[in-house]
Write a structure and sequence with these properties.
alpha+beta, about 10% strand, 17 helices, two-stranded antiparallel ribbon
């Protein structure tokens, strides 16, 4: 069991490192020559066609026999920079269209800067200084088109008079969501006849968040909460049941928020690979949400269905969830209130990212689009194995919002969420831990199993 936990943590760390390498390492990019005489010729520049569908739309067109619109549309030299605000632009190099980084070439809305070769180095220069050959910085393979130099330039350009108030509001909103999550935990504990004060649970929750800074997955937060409540109540089954139900309710709350914002995010769910894929899954997502709600409210309906589940691991997980939900069969009102708090908590998370967008002055994006992207990002951190969701949140935001805000700003919207979660809203747990009278170390899986065994012996 210990080896499996270590391996799982190692995989998540490797995925996270791999994502960041793919973000900041570019393969196949560089400077490519284009004859100056060809810059004004038709077909030299193109831009991606906003009407060209994503993978789901292409599949539908193939199944129905419909023809697809062209992938790219021609633009002239004077239209390149305006088109690059919302679309990828291309320059023809040796007869082949290559995507290029327009922001390095555009100034004041016009394509006025290129690169020239001087003393063996590529130097940015006005277009008028390029004699026969102009070099364009083409985009190679990169998970998202973001460079460290661009991030640093954007950070230095932040207006602190705008950034600090919105960033502080983002922290405050997320803090309200955390308090709602603690209340949800308290209500579910009461459903198991465990009555603990809100102050005690809040202290335990924040200490768990502190351990979660360095521990893989949710072992820091959930592991510490489970350990501490079992230690106080000596009721391991009920405490474990509460966390199992809480996870299901949290997932249901997330699906509710995604479906709630989806109708208002048409601009990022059509023609975008990830957004279109999520939009195409609205029926499966709604089905999964309805199924989870029924499992919570009527768990007895599903016990007989477990035998048809082929995977023993999935079957065991569903069995534990059904058994946990059955513990609330006579107190379903607790589950309903907890679900409402889960939805509220998820909405506060999306509002936190919206405040991040306002803090860095992200234009060309509507509020509901940011809220939808935030909810999809949270789902991505559930599905993809990464350490604390780091890397996943940045990639999802760039893929969904990059065409509207720019890749750098979209990256920062997501990345700021990491610092909010891990510093101002987790470090206080370390202070609470320091102020405790008894010295406490980070809980391990072995500690948790030992406490459960000791409690079971006492109960017998």
């Amino acid at each position: 069991m210990k080896l499996r936990a270590v391996a799982k943590g190692a995989v998540k760390l490797a995925v996270t490192v791999g994502i960041f390498v793919a973000i900041f390492v570019e393969i196949g990019g560089g400077y490519r020559p284009v004859p100056v005489a060809e810059l004004g010729a038709p077909g030299t520049f193109e831009a991606s066609n906003p009407q060209y569908p994503g993978p789901v739309g292409r599949l539908r067109a193939w199944l129905s026999g419909r023809s697809l619109p062209p992938v790219r549309l021609p633009v002239n030299e004077s239209q390149v920079c305006e088109a690059s605000i919302h679309r990828q632009v291309f320059v023809r190099v040796d007869g082949v269209p290559r995507a290029f980084k327009a922001y390095l070439h555009c100034r004041d809305g016009s394509l006025s800067r290129v690169f020239v070769l001087r003393d063996g180095k590529f130097v940015a220069a006005p277009l008028s200084e390029a004699e026969h050959t102009a070099y364009f910085r083409v985009q190679g393979f990169q998970l998202v088109p973001v460079e460290l130099a661009d991030l640093w330039r954007e950070i230095r350009a932040l207006d602190m008079r705008v950034f600090l108030p919105w960033f502080a509001l983002a922290i405050a909103i997320k803090l309200v969501g955390i308090f709602a999550n603690i209340w949800r935990w308290q209500i579910l504990l009461r459903g198991q006849n465990i009555r603990l004060s809100y102050g005690y649970l809040a202290s335990t929750y924040f200490i768990g968040r502190y351990f979660g800074i360095v521990t893989p997955s949710t072992m820091g937060l959930d592991g510490w909460r489970l350990y501490d409540t079992i230690r106080i109540t000596r009721r391991p089954i009920e405490c474990t049941t509460v966390l199992a139900v809480e996870r299901v309710i949290g997932l249901v709350g997330l699906l509710v928020v995604i479906l709630l914002f989806m109708p208002f995010a048409g601009a990022i769910t059509s023609g975008h690979s990830l957004g279109e894929l999520v939009a195409a899954m609205k029926i499966p997502l709604a089905g999964a949400m309805a199924f989870a709600v029924l499992v919570l409210l009527q768990p007895s309906w599903f016990k007989g269905m477990l035998s048809v589940v082929p995977s023993a691991r999935v079957r065991g997980f569903l069995h534990n969830v059904i058994e946990a939900a059955a513990a609330y069969s006579s107190r379903r009102s607790y589950l309903v209130v907890a679900l409402g708090l889960a939805v509220f908590g998820q909405i506060t998370t999306t509002l936190m990212y919206f405040c991040n967008a306002l803090a860095i002055r992200s234009g060309n994006v509507r509020p509901l689009e940011v809220l939808f992207a935030s909810a999809v990002m949270t789902l991505g951190t559930f599905i993809l194995p990464s350490a604390s969701g780091e890397g996943v949140r940045e990639v999802v935001f760039v893929w969904l919002l990059g065409s509207k805000t720019g890749a750098v700003k979209a990256f920062l919207i997501g990345h700021l969420g990491f610092w909010i979660e891990k510093l101002p809203l987790s470090i206080p747990g370390g202070v609470l831990l320091f102020l405790q009278r008894e010295p406490v170390k980070a809980v391990t899986r072995a500690d948790l199993e030992r406490l459960k065994a000791e409690t079971a012996v006492e109960a017998s």
